[in-house]
């Protein structure tokens, strides 16, 4: 960080450019009036308006004025600086001006879009413009800070999004760390039998990608691991990863299952997470046959050997490769990466929260994910859809929007449930010949081939009843209902209340953020929406970026998404990371704090305030000193300096005081 | 003396807001994108973190003519810079005491934690704040003579000091 | 060479500034020899009419101490401004309003009642309070008007130099006289003291920890003050980090915390606000309730933060909605 000259010798000549933004601004703000107003402000030499300042002709106006010597500082009154500040700074620089002798007035997001009254909007716009003019007088010419980018990338989460992002980057030649919390990558997709709407086998398309991850020389796969610390900044993150002990030496294990066979438990004792608890597994297990890495894991909570030490430890004897180490402890690995892709996925809605649907109370009520396992040929029933008594169901009800589009649980649409419900309806019909009843609020099937799939189901004589299910009960009213579960719902198309007796109910549970999404957000310094989805930088134009540079989002951690969308987003996130790495450097906002050496009394008030350790005490000079490379530009130390000897570039006291003055004086 | 109600009806308060870049300013942008209309009385000044808020800014805004000050930062624990908002909180608590000691209604300054996704909260808080300050009426600080304002600015830019540094 | 003519005047002050001049001790002889004293009512018998008789700009430098709070002080300093080439605000009261400036936390009527009627030591059954204009047998008596708001010197006239301190430290006074005699004056509007905070010359700085973790603020009488440790670290509200140096840390050497008489550095616009932020930084809590409890231990926030600078602060005085006008 350095300043170029002081700029104080040049006479201050400010150009003010007010943008119409089509009619986004001009329909509320009297743009011509603001331009006339701005022309009279101190130091303003040029005051213009244009339809779209961000378009080339708009930027040309500024550049021409700079080249012709009419201005040396500029104020653009248009949209949010978070949107176009970089654009206009470039405009300045390209014309030979200093990009930081520039200030934006946000008269769209903060004025025209939020103000009802035109007069009030115009006045507010004028006061924001005058604040920007007052402020830009005190701007200093600055040089942006260039910092090299570390070429490695961290991908957090090994579902389909994380896998795809990791492979894309690895194929491009980047070294990737893929960190997955569970013992195997694969995520939710590994649990599915078929995928909508093409009905291709989920495992058939996912397994090759999982193998590719394992085999790729550019990918370091750390399963059963979690990120526990993130320091640094874009291009230069320092990440700490905790590798949980799996009590199996990963390099030795070949996934032969001998240890599992040899476990003193002859049958499963613990609900099998991968199979949604439909069956039990042993304390030593491999989550599923295609698990990657194909390495056993011992669950310390249930393994007697680890818990008590009093076990025959038959597993150890059984392992010919001496891969079992019950004394293994966790390992902390520190890595440096330039970019991070978060693909931490989602969890499904807990159906027990809607008590009246009887999940957990009646048998033969399953969540959609449980049914996914049931219809899976590799699942607990070998793909058979059976009732608890072993018989095939004759009638199955599928309840849509469980935990979605519901003010009491989640307001949002989970986006994938209609389609997966159709898929499950098809599979149930195909495997059992049962009558299948879909209870839906609205059928939402936008997507390539999705509506056609819905049509196909209609032709397959699957029943669709439009109405939110009120209750599922075993309280029977007619002989036909005897021994059945009765689904009560208002058929809103016919206008009657229906009671539909079925043998089995599938609850199409919605998608929710991971329970620790907020903690993860904090860890990576990114925000969450109110629901807990990770917040993208811009919903349309920066959907995989976050407000923290260098951290990107992929898949359902950003919001409910199906497989194609997750993969597309993962590709986009990988491309963004690549663009960053390929450029090789990042330009840091030069908004760091600096000590006015000669004026600092060395009172130490600021020393311990910096969470990044950027401030230290210079024992020779007896003053504070700021390490610009570590400073992230919050300005907390600046505000705390009792003698005003610390300042922050782009946010000096002068600049803010003059902004305050401007915002009030002319309003 | 005018009726109190008249003052309330016709008084359009000036409120200066200091919003942190990462949460509250973003939320205000979101409110805009979502076209959530609200009272036009609040003028937002962007700072990188609520921790940058020097209490001088608040007092200066009152002096310049603001009737109320709104400060917006990230929720506790969510600060983009980890702890800046706690620093803001400590200063705010002290500042509130101070202005109260000066006889200024405490309600004229308000600190709100508004996350980037809470556009609706920006709308609500700005509307509430505007109404609160409207009810309180204009602040009307006794005008300082023009001289003092000069003095303030001169103190900073032109007052030169003899450096005795090193001789001590 | 002609000796420069020098004047001294006092407004709302305690007289300490005049004493400070005498603190030059035997050096004062040299000063007196080098200058010509033309006006110093506290020491020599000068009348207002003597000043009125002078030519405009006849006085080379006039030192004014004390704040401005009466019509008479206002008139006198305006007269002196006219007759002087340079005006120097001498001491905290003239520079920032000083201790008398704390009267701005009250209004004039309340203050008069307090002093003349309510004070426990007062016996005033007739309820006689000062009047600006009073009829007596001999005729009309006119007293100067007492302003509602105390002002600093440069609120009412242009001031060329500021000499901070309550009173200004002797070495700084000496420097100023030397500058006058040698004719080497710094640029106008200069505060004639180093522009660095007091910690810079504090012997206890080395002992100050990088992080203060205070759970309570204390008054000096509440604790046995350690003569070596940083006073802030002991929970005392020492304003050294906020205050200009130049006094040599006289109070701290006497084991008392700095109260800020030297005023802020040149980069600070409001002393109290900066003092506030320094104090807030030292509070060790993230919990609103606890912070409030800690702040409770600061008994008089305005008196603590603005002891010498209330009139020169942004808020300037206690705010009273129904008060019509302030001074006049």
End-to-end distance of chain B, in Å?
60 Å
The number of distinct β-strands of chain B equals: 4
What share of residues of chain C is helical? 25-40%
Determine the CATH superfamily of the largest domain in chain C. Answer: NADH:ubiquinone oxidoreductase-like, 20kDa subunit
Verbal overview:
The complex is a heterotrimer of chains A (667), B (168) and C (328). Chain A has 667 residues and is an alpha/beta fold. Among the domains of chain A are: 14-144, Rossmann fold (3-Layer(aba) Sandwich); 258-318, no CATH class; 347-512, 3-Layer(bba) Sandwich (FAD/NAD(P)-binding domain); 593-648, Alpha-Beta Plaits (2-Layer Sandwich), CATH 3.30.70. In chain A, 27% of the residues lie in helices and 24% in strands. Chain A contains 17 helices and 36 strands. In chain A, the strands form 13 sheets. Chain A has a 5-stranded parallel sheet, with helices on one face. In chain A, helix 1 runs parallel beside helix 5 (118-136), helix 6 runs parallel beside helix 15 and helix 11 (368-375) packs across helix 12. Chain B has helices spanning 4-10, 24-33, 55-64, 84-101, 119-136, 146-157; strands spanning 15-20, 42-47, 68-73, 109-113. The longest helix of chain B has 18 residues, at 84-101. Chain C is an alpha/beta fold and 328 residues long. Chain C folds into 2 domains: 5-99 and 150-191, 3-Layer(aba) Sandwich (Rossmann fold), CATH 3.40.50; 198-297, no CATH class. Chain C has helices spanning 16-22, 27-34, 48-52, 71-83, 92-96, 108-118, 170-182, 250-253, 271-282, 288-296, 301-305; strands at 5-10, 36-39, 59-65, 68-70, 84-90, 133-136, 139-142, 146-151, 161-163, 190-191. In chain C, the strands form 3 sheets. A 6-stranded parallel sheet of chain C has the order 2-1-3-5-9-10, with helices on both faces. In chain C, strand 6 and strand 7 form a beta hairpin. The chains are: A alpha/beta (667), B alpha/beta (168), C alpha/beta (328). At the A-B interface, helix 3, helix 4, helix 5, helix 16 and helix 17 of A face helix 2, strand 2, helix 3 and helix 4 of B.
Topology:
The complex is a heterotrimer of chains A (667), B (168) and C (328).
Chain A lengths: L1 E2 L10 E6 L11 H9 L4 E7 L5 H12 L5 E6 L2 H14 L7 E5 L1 H5 L5 H19 L5 E2 L1 E4 L4 E4 L3 H12 L4 E4 L14 E2 L4 E2 H14 L3 E4 L2 E9 L2 E8 L14 H5 L7 E2 L8 E2 L2 E2 L11 E2 L5 H5 L5 H5 L12 E7 L1 E4 L3 E3 L16 E3 H8 L19 E8 L14 H16 L2 E6 L9 H10 L3 E4 L2 E5 L11 E7 L4 E7 L1 E6 L1 E3 L3 H7 L27 E3 L9 H21 L1 E4 L4 E3 L19 E4 L4 E4 L9 H5 L5 E3 L4 H13 L2
Parallel strand pairs in A: 2-3, 2-4, 4-5, 8-9, 8-20, 9-12, 20-31, 22-29, 23-24, 23-29, 24-25
Antiparallel strand pairs in A: 1-6, 7-32, 10-11, 13-14, 14-19, 15-16, 17-18, 21-30, 26-27, 27-28, 33-36, 34-35
Chain B lengths: L3 H7 L4 E6 L3 H10 L8 E6 L7 H10 L3 E6 L10 H18 L7 E5 L5 H18 L9 H12 L11
Parallel strand pairs in B: 1-2, 1-3, 3-4
Helix pairs in contact in B: 2-5
Chain C lengths: L4 E6 L5 H7 L4 H8 L1 E4 L8 H5 L6 E7 L2 E3 H13 E7 L1 H5 L11 H11 L14 E4 L2 E4 L3 E6 L9 E3 L6 H13 L7 E2 L58 H4 L17 H12 L5 H9 L4 H5 L23
Parallel strand pairs in C: 1-2, 1-3, 3-5, 5-9, 9-10
Antiparallel strand pairs in C: 4-8, 6-7
